[in-house]
Design goal:
- By secondary structure, this protein is α+β, with helices and mostly antiparallel strands.
- It is about 20% helix and about 30% strand.
- Strands 8-5-10-3-2-1-11 form a 7-stranded antiparallel beta sheet, with helices on one face. A 3-stranded antiparallel beta sheet has the order 7-6-9, with no helix packed on it.
- The longest helix has 24 residues.
- It is globular and about 60 Å long.
Length: about 210
């Protein structure tokens, strides 16, 4: 048989197989089981309804107060998270810090957004910089201070929530972020210490 006829025969067989295979793939099989495609009506994970407690805040948005010399901006209060946690941001000016204190009810976690802070957690002393993460377990005394010449910013939270109310109780509302922070008087410190006990927080004398 001439070579050209052999090539045509092979090509014909090849295309015939492709056509038959394609028909088999597109023809429904009597015993084949269809796989349901998930959608928002069958899969709870695809529920497209917007939750009533959705929070979307831009940078610097939230409820802001000056508390013990620190600018605190509440991003999410525990009442909006079923009491499970609260999130907020701290802005700490140079020379400002917190007295040594201990929480008995909540875990704390901190993420450095900018600047540097000197930390004291238990018997450990260290410096935290931008990008560092710190966890302070309940029952462990701790404090921090901005010993640099630049402001520092942290994003932090409590779990479970609740202590954020202390900032609202003792803090002074911020009406203009450009204004200088109010001075912290001795009476302000005593009041803050007194109210903190209501939330299971003790300030430790040094």
């Amino acid at each position: 048989m001439p070579k050209r006829y052999i090539i045509k025969l092979i090509a014909g067989i090849f295309f015939t197989v492709i056509i038959i295979t394609g028909c088999a793939l597109t023809t429904p099989q009597p015993n084949a089981k269809s796989v349901p495609v998930a959608d928002s009506t069958t899969d709870p994970a695809l529920n497209l309804k917007t939750p009533a407690n959705l929070k979307l805040l831009q940078d610097r948005e939230g409820t802001s107060v000056w508390a013990m010399g620190v600018l605190v901006t509440l991003k999410l209060q525990s009442k909006d998270a079923g009491g499970t946690y609260a999130m907020f941001e701290d802005y700490i000016l140079p020379g400002v810090g917190t007295p040594l204190h201990v929480h008995s009810r909540e875990e704390e976690f901190w993420y450095m957004l900018d600047g540097e802070l000197n930390w004291y957690v238990g018997n450990k002393e260290f410096q935290a910089k931008k990008g560092d993460f710190i966890n302070t377990p309940r029952g462990v005394p701790h404090r921090f201070k901005n010993a640099s010449n630049k402001p520092a910013r942290m994003f932090l939270g409590y779990s479970p929530g609740g202590f954020e109310q202390w900032f609202l109780d003792v803090g002074k509302p911020v009406r203009n972020l450009q204004e200088a922070p109010p001075k912290v008087a001795p009476d302000d410190i005593q009041q803050a210490i007194k109210v903190a006990k209501k939330y299971g927080v003790e300030f430790i004398k040094q």
